[in-house]
Each structure stands twice: as structure tokens, then as C-alpha cells.
């Protein structure tokens, strides 16, 4: 078992409901280049939109992921991503990416996402990403205290 697997297996990641006040919303509009030959959004784009939601969630907490990396030498690497597709999005649809922080332990952070079409509030995709905190040397490290405190304040 590698270092990342041992962290994931040893970390209790409870799936409790998150109050609406702890949800951040980011809007995206489907570009033509994000659709396939059938005119449907290509499945991998949802992972990109999860990242948009995650970065905006961190920004809404008053933090900067860019500064976290550049000033504090701290990164949160995706080690697991899941997506469940419920309905299709198409070119020019306006979407909302709802992002929740569902776990933040010393080495592991977990986000949950919902992608919803604005016009009819249809759930298109839901998913999660699990991240391991790394230093600039790409080795596992604890989340710096100033980030850990802010992340903890945004948990349910």
C-alpha cells in the first residue's frame, strides 16, 4: 500500500449533510468546444467544473489557492474523483456548480459537488473529489494551521 492509500484508508470521512450556508455556487456556461458530436457535454468537462467550484469555494472562504501554493508551498492533489451523470447539458446551457466541503483532516480534504442547469434546476451531475495535502517536495504534509482553521469553520 502506498503513502496516499494509507492516508485514505486511515481517515474517517463521514458523509453528513451540509447546511446550505456552507455551499458555494459558481456559474459556468457550456461552450461549444465542451460538447461532443451528439451536442452533449463531454463527460470529462464535469471534472473541470468541479475544479472551478473548488477554487471558488476556497476563494469564498477568504483564501487563495494560488497563494497557498506559492507562499505556503502547500498543494491539494486530487487522489480520487467520482462523478454520477444524471442528465445531459448542452451548448450554451448556464450551469451552477454547488460545492461543499465535507471533510478536512490533517492530510486529507474532501469536496462534494452538484452541477445543476439554471433554466430548470435539473441535477446534471454529482460527484466528489478527495485530495491529499502535499508540500512543494510532493510529499504528504499537514495542512498549515491558518488553512486548517478556515477549512474547519466551513465544515458542517
Order of helices and strands: HEHHEEEEH
What is the CATH architecture assignment? Roll
Instruction: List the strand order in the largest sheet.
Output: 1-3-4-5-2
Work out the count of structural domains: 1
The quaternary state of the protein chains shown equals single chain
Q: Which regions have little confidence, pLDDT < 50, spanning 5+ residues?
A: 6-19
Task: Write the topology of this structure.
Layout: H1 3-10, E1 23-29, H2 45-60, H3 65-70, E2 74-85, E3 94-104, E4 108-117, E5 123-135, H4 145-153
Antiparallel strand pairs: 1-3, 2-5, 3-4, 4-5
Description:
This protein is α+β, with helices and mostly antiparallel strands and 156 residues long. The protein has one domain (3-153): Thiol Ester Dehydrase, Chain A (Roll), CATH 3.10.129.10. Helix content is 25%, strand content 34%. The protein contains 4 helices and 5 strands, in the order αβααββββα. It has helices spanning 3-10, 45-60, 65-70, 145-153, and strands spanning 23-29, 74-85, 94-104, 108-117, 123-135. A 5-stranded antiparallel beta sheet has the order 1-3-4-5-2. A hairpin with a 3-residue loop joins strand 3 (94-104) and strand 4 (108-117). It is elongated and about 45 Å long. The two termini are 31 Å apart.
Amino acid at each position: 500500500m502506498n503513502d496516499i492509500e494509507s492516508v485514505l484508508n486511515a481517515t474517517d470521512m463521514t458523509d453528513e449533510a451540509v447546511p446550505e450556508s456552507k455551499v458555494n455556487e459558481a456559474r459556468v456556461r457550456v461552450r461549444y468546444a465542451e460538447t461532443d458530436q451528439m451536442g452533449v457535454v463531454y463527460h470529462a468537462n464535469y471534472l473541470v467544473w468541479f475544479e472551478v467550484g473548488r477554487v471558488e469555494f476556497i476563494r469564498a472562504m477568504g483564501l487563495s489557492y494560488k497563494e497557498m501554493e506559492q507562499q505556503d508551498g502547500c498543494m491539494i492533489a486530487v487522489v480520487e474523483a467520482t462523478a454520477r451523470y444524471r442528465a445531459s447539458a448542452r451548448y450554451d446551457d448556464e450551469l451552477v456548480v454547488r460545492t461543499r466541503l465535507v471533510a478536512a483532516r490533517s492530510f486529507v480534504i474532501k469536496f462534494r459537488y452538484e452541477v445543476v442547469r439554471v433554466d430548470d434546476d435539473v441535477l446534471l451531475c454529482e460527484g466528489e473529489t478527495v485530495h491529499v495535502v502535499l508540500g512543494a517536495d510532493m510529499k504528504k504534509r499537514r495542512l498549515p494551521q491558518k488553512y486548517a482553521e478556515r477549512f474547519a469553520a466551513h465544515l458542517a
